[in-house]
Design a protein that fits this description.
This is Flagellar protein FliL. It is a single chain. By secondary structure, the protein is α+β, with helices and mostly antiparallel strands. It has a domain of 101 residues: Band 7 domain (Tetrahydropterin Synthase, Chain A, 2-Layer Sandwich), CATH 3.30.479.30. It is built from five helices and four strands; from the N terminus they run H-E-E-E-H-H-H-H-E. Strands 1, 2, 3 and 4 form a four-stranded antiparallel β-sheet that branches. Strand 2 and strand 3 form a beta hairpin.
Length: 147
């Protein structure tokens, strides 16, 4: 009886191994299975560098600080970039107006602004002016504070 149980266990192991080899290596490919479509290629990003933007912080009718920004606008489509380039003064005005709005004197003195926050606000302001999806993102390449 003991030999019979051992023989059955060995046959089960051999049968399981043979089934696994057939399943993973020798099984014919399913002809009806559709091949996965490759993902679409990532968009080609283009950019515009805005001229130096200076924001003066005024306290008591006197300029106490100046913040200079180097800003890059990134596009995911060349056609969108061309449309925005045609209206470059509106883009520069939107960026300048938003920076003046979000950088009050008290906020600058307390150091309560971060670059990602400014980039997000600028992106939203330009999208509000030009339409959602016209730009991909706005990056602040450099930000210098002068006292």
């Amino acid at each position: 009886m003991k030999k019979l149980i051992i023989l059955l266990v060995i046959l089960l192991l051999l049968g399981g191994g043979a089934a696994a080899v057939w399943w993973y290596f020798l099984k014919p490919k399913d002809e009806n299975a559709q091949a996965e479509e490759p993902p679409p290629p990532p968009p080609v990003l283009t950019q515009i560098d805005l001229p130096l933007t200076s924001i003066a912080i005024i306290n008591g009718n006197k300029s106490t600080q100046r913040i200079d920004f180097l800003i890059t606008v990134v596009f995911d489509d060349a056609e969108k970039q061309k449309k925005v380039e045609e209206r470059m003064p509106r883009l520069f005005d939107a960026v300048n107006t938003e920076l003046h709005g979000i950088l009050p004197r008290k906020m600058v003195e307390q150091g309560g602004f971060q670059r990602p926050y400014l980039e997000e606000r600028l992106t939203k302001a330009v999208e509000a002016r030009f339409g959602k999806g016209m730009i991909n993102k706005i990056y602040i390449k450099d930000m210098q504070i002068y006292k």
